[in-house]
Amino acid sequence: MKSVVVNLAKKKKNLYKLYTISQKWIAELEFIRDEHHFLQDLISTFFVDLCSVDYFPETRRLSKKLEESNKKANLFLLELRTHSKQLSTLIESSHLNGEEDFRKRQKKLANKFDQYVLGSKLLKSRVFAIIKNIMKQHKQKLLLSHANSQEVDSSMP
Q1: DSSP codes joined into one string, 15-78
Q2: What pLDDT score does 51 carry?
Q3: Do residues 130 and 55 lie in contact, with contact meaning Cβ atoms separated by under 8 Å?
Q4: What's the whole-number average pLDDT of the chain?
Q5: What Rg value do the Cα atoms of the chain yield, rounded?
Q6: Residue 77: which of 123, 21, 114, 25 has the closest Cα?
Q7: CA-to-CA separations, 96 to 39, 64, 154, in angstroms, rounded
Q8: Backbone angles phi and psi of 46, in degrees to 5
């Protein structure tokens, strides 16, 4: 009887680890979703420049990708929250039926999570690269206009 209690406690502890991991994934996805909103705001801020011939096709594609990524995040968050609630219920239960199914499900979710995070990082780096180029161009124009205005000022008596 003692080994059954010890085994049950060990299984609950292992399930709690899965639950904790799921909670971390949820927090990370919520943060990524906030990052995507920030990136969309950033694109809106530089919209006029991003609509130039040089940047428009890529910007349009990235903007759509951000929207798609947000939709995926919302669906994935729902899936993770459901999984997490089910794990919580299983941990609270005195019967641990289906523990192996949850482990398999957790592994699939881990792969899905890793793929989503990788895609999100690539998307973010592409948006930053475009904005960085635009900011460099703005800085160059500002320096040129500043240099030109100083030339004009020095030529006046």
Answers
A1: HHHHHHHHHHHHHHHHHHHHHHHHHHHHHHHTHHHHTSTTTHHHHHHHHHHHHHHHHHHHHHHH
A2: 67
A3: yes
A4: 83
A5: 25
A6: 25
A7: 43, 43, 84
A8: -100, 25
Task: Look up residue 8 and give its two tokens.
Answer: 């049950």
Buried b (16+ CB within 10 A) or exposed e, 119-145: ebeebbebbeebbeebeeeeeeeeeee
Task: At 26, list the tokens.
Answer: 């949820």
pLDDT tens-place string over residues 134-153:
778 777 777 777 666 666 55
**Interval 103-124: pLDDT, tens:** 899 999 999 999 999 999 999 9
Say which residue the tokens 């969309």 belong to.
Answer: 40
Place of tokens 């990136």: 39
Nearest to 39 by CA among 73, 67, 75: 67
End-to-end CA distance of the chain: 102
Contacts from 60-63 at CB under 8 Å and sequence distance 24+?
62/123, 62/126, 62/127, 62/130
**Chain Cα centroid distance, residue 43:** 16
